[in-house]
Amino acid sequence: MGAEAIMRALLTADAGVTALVGASIYPVVIPAGLEPARALVIDLLSNDPVLTIDGLNQSAAMFTADVQVTCIAHTYADVKALTAVVKTAAHLKRGSVAGSSVVSSVLSSEGADEYDPEQSVFLQSVRYVITYQ
After folding, report:
1. Residue ranges of the chain with pLDDT lower than 70?
2. Alpha carbon 35 to chain centroid distance?
3. Which CATH superfamily is domain 3-132 in?
4. Is the pTM of this model over 0.85?
5. Cα 92 vs. chain centroid, distance in angstroms?
6. Which of 81, 93, 104, 106 has its CA 20 to 30 A from that of 5?
7. Is 57 exposed, middle or buried (0-12, 13-18, 19+ CB in 10 A)?
8. Using a CB cutoff of 8 Å and minimum separation of 24, what contacts does 44-50 make?
């Protein structure tokens, strides 16, 4: 499995996240026709092999991924609440997740507050660096 599956598994395992968005966690974009009050969108920004002493032996292949989670809500208060739970849901995690061995999942940055007037939604992104095998 990839970094996107790892992030989705970490988010869906967090009671605070699911209390706010339920199952509204999507890869890349919210599907056409859906307009959830609150949602998360997961984007893989990069996924690079980690060169180890074992080289790129497939059985020992390790990767470092930059994953962005965009929090989307109709109110500013909701997007801030969602950002707060997303910031803790996948921070400082490791172990077996979504069929991968996660060495570390660490919060790397929190994006600016944004508003999309065409969609009437507030947005804020949270980025993680995930190292996995």
Report:
1. 1, 52-60
2. 20
3. Phage tail protein-like (3.30.2000.10)
4. yes
5. 13
6. 81
7. exposed
8. 44/2, 44/3, 44/4, 45/127, 47/2, 47/3, 50/131
